[in-house]
Each structure stands twice: as C-alpha cells, then as structure tokens.
Amino acid sequence: MLILERNAADRPYGHQVVAVFGVGTVGGAVANSLVSSGWRVADDIVISWDSESGRRKSLVDCGSALLSLRRMHGDGICSFVWSAGRAGFSSGMDQVEQEMNAFRDVLNLYCDVVPKLYSRSQWHHVSSAGGLFEGQRLVVASSRPNPQRPYGVLKLRQEEALQVLPENERVVYRLSSVFGSVRRGQRCGLIPTMARNGVLGRITRIVGRSGTLRDFAWTEDVARFIAQVIAQVRGRQTNLFLMASGRPVSISEVQRQVESCLRRRLYVSYSDQQNGSDITFSERAIPEDFRRTNLDECLRRVCRECLADVALIA
C-alpha cells in the first residue's frame, strides 16, 4: 500500500493524506494520477494480505506512519482508498472470506485510528458493477444489486459493511469491466490479456459467449475521476458513482478490433457455462464529468504496448 500526501496549508482543510490499499490495476492508476497532480509518496508499506498476523502487523505500521505525518504537518483530512483484492468472477467462498477478513481489518484501522488523528476523513471504495448487476441490462442508479456468484456477494457485503460510516464519509465507485496497460505480474483485464496472447500466439480462454455484451472502461479514466473526487474533498450530491462507458460491445467485436490492430488472427476459446449473461449500463447513470476515452483509442494503445513489450523481451 502507498501513503501519499499533499501540502494544502492554503486551504481550509489543511494537510491531505491518502492511504491507498491495493496498488494494482486500479489503485496503482489512482496513485499515479494523484502524483501527476502534485501529491507526494510519503510511505510504501508491503502488506502480507494472505497472512492474518502479517497483515495486522503491516496495518500497525500504517497507523504509525499516519501518526508521524500528523505530528509533522498537523491536522487536515485523511482518506482511505480500498482497491485491494484478488477475487474475481470465478472465485469460491474460501477466497471471498479471506478477502472479506482483510477488508474488515483495514476498515477497523480506519474506524479506530483515523478519527483520533484527523478531524476529517473519508473512505473511497472501489466496488464492482459487474459483480453486483450480473445478468442485468441498462442498469441505472435505482437498479438493485442481485449478485449471482460469491464475488458479487463479496462486493455487496463490503458495501453494506461501510454503513457503519456516516453517509458523507464514504464514497463508492462501482466499476464495469476495467482494463489498462499491460504490466507483468498484475491483472489488467480481458482486452490486454487477449492482445498479449495474440502477440505471443497463445489461446485466450473466455468464460462466456462470443456475443456476450460487456461494458469496458479505461483504467486511467476511472483513476482520474477518483483522484478528482479525493482532491475536491467537498461532498457531491451523491456518494455512489457508476464507472462505466455506457457503450456495450460484444466480446466477438472486441476480438475483431484487436485482430485488426495487431494484424493477426487471435485464437480464442469460448465457454458459456458460467459467465454468458450480458451486463450493460445506461448512460443516464454515469456521472456527467466522467470523461471516457474512446474504446478504439484504448485498444490501439494496448496493442502497441503489447507489441513493444514482446519485442523488448525478444
């Protein structure tokens, strides 16, 4: 996890501190967006997520780091960003329970430590629109979550656990199928996986139908929006945001576009046993100031990166 800070002495809320838990595809992009807008990395703490004792020791270190920043810079506002977790659509209950336990530990740290250090605080929570609304089409703000598998249940349980916080102290971002740049050792989404496998001549195995509709959002767009909400501090009319493009596309169309960008055929194996339901979102439910990069542009960038990465290895 990363702790970032920004000197805001000229603003009424003073010094700003952000603790980002989970610096993978989404959390790493949020941290990068904050750094590019003037934030500084104050600490980098490795958390042993799979070990309960190791995790709790790391969280004690996190609390100590926040205390040091409070003593150094005085009062201000402290924000937590939860974007951690390895669970996915195919995860079973064991992995879901392990992730829920880790989430509770971080939430306890927030509730027990942060109010003693800072007069203002906020929790920014990265959730999953796909997990919550699987099988639903044209989802709007009033749509009710109806998880179909353990992963979706996990996301709903996390959101429900946040009810212990005041409404103006929690912000939830429900993400559609996000994808970003290819980074070794990190999950990056279906599209980069398909492109990389295409460059390497490998088979991409997809649990779903070729005609299944999905909504794809570019990670950097999502991260920029979250970073802006963190920096603004002041509350908005809502504390629940749907991060989606509102422009559904079939997986077969994505495959066609990736093949066009790479100028080579992709080898794709489809199986609709578990994940063949469409998931689409109404544009009316998406924040007006959420700037969305065109899918074609994102696809071309991902394909260029995959080709360059493989060429570098060779």
Characterization of the model:
With 314 residues, the chain is of the alpha/beta class. The protein has a single domain, classed as Rossmann fold (3-Layer(aba) Sandwich), CATH 3.40.50. The chain contains 9 helices and 13 strands. The chain has helices at 25-36, 52-73, 93-117, 129-132, 150-161, 190-200, 219-232, 251-262, 295-313; strands at 2-6, 15-21, 40-44, 76-82, 120-128, 170-175, 177-179, 203-207, 213-214, 216-218, 240-243, 249-250, 267-271. It has a 7-stranded mixed β-sheet with strand order 3-1-2-4-5-6-11, sandwiched between helices. The model has no long low-confidence stretch (mean pLDDT 92).
Q: pLDDT below 50 for ≥5 consecutive residues: which ranges?
A: none
- CATH homologous superfamily title: NAD(P)-binding Rossmann-like Domain
Q: Report helical residue fraction.
A: 40-55%
Strand order of the largest sheet: 3-1-2-4-5-6-11
What is the string of SSEs from the N terminus onward?
A: EEHEHEHEHHEEHEEEHEEHEH
| Number of spatially distinct domains | 1
User: Ends: how far apart?
Assistant: 32 Å
The assigned CATH architecture is 3-Layer(aba) Sandwich
Rg estimate, integer Å:
20 Å
Shape: globular
Oligomer: single chain
CATH topology call = Rossmann fold
- How many beta strands in the DSSP annotation? 13
Mean pLDDT: 92
Binned strand content? 15-25%
What's the total helix number? 9
What is the CATH class name? Alpha Beta
Biggest beta sheet summary = 7 strands, mixed
Structural class: alpha/beta
Question: What labels describe this entry?
Answer:
single chain, 314 residues, alpha/beta, seven-stranded mixed β-sheet, 13 strands
